[in-house]
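User: Round two. Same drill as before: sequence, then structure, for each protein.

Assistant: Same drill it is. First protein:
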Amino acid sequence: MVIEVVSFRESTFKEIMDVLYRSLEDYSLQEGLRRTMANLVPAPYRVLANWSYIARLAEEIRGVKEEVIRNIDYYIDITIKNVKAYARGEGFYARTREDVYRIIDSILEDHKRRMIIVKAKSMVTEELKLREYLIEKGHEVYETDLGELLIQLLGDKPMHAIGPAIHIPKERAVMLTSKLGIKLARDAGHEDIVRGVREFLREKFVKADVGISGANAVAADTGSIVLVENEGNIRLSTSLPPVHIAVTGIEKIMPTLDYAIKQAIVQSGYAGLYPPTYLTVISGPSSTADIEFHRVYGAHGPHKFYLILYDGGRRMAVEHPYLWEQLLCIKCGRCQGECPIWELTANNWGGNVYGGPMGLAWTAIVEDKVKASHLALLCLECGLCKEVCPMKIDMPRIAHILKRELWQS
């Protein structure tokens, strides 16, 4: 199967360039990126120098992910079956955004009231505009990742796969958190901002009816999900509310739990955030077997667990001659930090969700190949993204083919 070749559209390219010119003239964005780059780029190098086994794990994971992609229908099926068999939850396959909405509506419909929902950071839910949808339905929804909460307050999109608010200077973060009633001095430090947000969200965690997360990896053999984080918000979002819903792309499936954990380790390492503060395995709702070793589900944590495996163009990409390789991506964001174009624009060079080198193919897969092809015209094909990618995805080649198809059409 080949995705339709597109033609050059001057209006599309002009729209892209207008966004990029505005990015270059945005002082706050440029200052935020300038401060961030000094910390972002060196971090993975330090991690890989200290823990060389992470690079070896990356090579292993690449081969395993290729196997899963070649047999994706089998792995979707077995994962959904094992969520029920071993994780005592319910698994779903959602082909479209509307399918996800329908499934979540069906989960929430019994309550028939305004619900408090706490969300962990998830690029897939950004694709789905899930927070916006739930708010429109009348629910009270809070992003709990600090960066994602700032993005919610700003009404913007994430500017990096791991650090969504890396473009926001701390002075602007102070102004944004004031919208929540958090009172901070104008010259408040990073620690003050974190403390203020912690105090604000604590009440939301305790009162939440539903917690929504993504997944860094999914284990087909057990139906478990693996989550990696540093803030602790994911653990609170997935353990305090009585209902936990995990939404993730089908490409996150790994054959076994050990490979799923390895993938999460590789993502953390190549993001420069290793060792991760928290590495969580969730295999269904909470349970106890303390009385006569009789296992009862619904203890201190959630009593319901749901996993939604989202397609959104991924299944089509499996059979595409070159876009399939982007499905190997573990979204560590390292390619973004190394890219000379992204360094100046962040995710403004990209589609509605994904930006930078990884954003070219992801935008073609989940959004619009026309836009992706025009974005590719700005790629320098310098090769830095492939050099640092843990999966060695040939993003320069993808950009080159997108350009060639555009001009040959």
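Second protein:
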Amino acid sequence: MRLLRKSLAGFVILVAVLAIVGLLLPAHFKVERSIVIKAKPEDIYAQLDDPKAWKAWSIWVRRDPAMQIAYGDVAHGVGAHWSWRSKTEGNGAMTFTASDPGKLLTYKLEFPDYGMVSTGVLRLEPATDGVKLTWNNEGDMDHNPMNRYMGLFMDKMVGPDFDAGLAQLKQNLEH
């Protein structure tokens, strides 16, 4: 019985220490990737500001062909919206919040099952060999210690998906 009490006490202490450390971790995360595409800015932008066009280059849609997608009434730019349900990629929604055609698109990304909301920016800039497209997403993990631990690995978890999506977009536009 004494061993059981010591084991239980040790487990409680371990959980408490992990929770306290989790609360001390940074709440903010940021993922950012860039690629240079040999295409006109307006051609690239047309693939960004239309939620339906994301199906042609988004890694998440390719990973789950059974993903259920619903689109809002606005087709392009500010107010354009899409939501999805997926057993493998999670449930979420994206709404375009700012638009500067050929230069910038900002979005709000929501994952209600995880209580996560983040902001993303797709920025186009002139480059020597074409157009540099930079994609970033950032947000806060709030006060949930488990989410803060996840935030430490966000770049390693989501960054490769950004790389794959950007590479597919480049391939689609250059060929």
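The chain has a mean pLDDT of 90.

User: Perfect.
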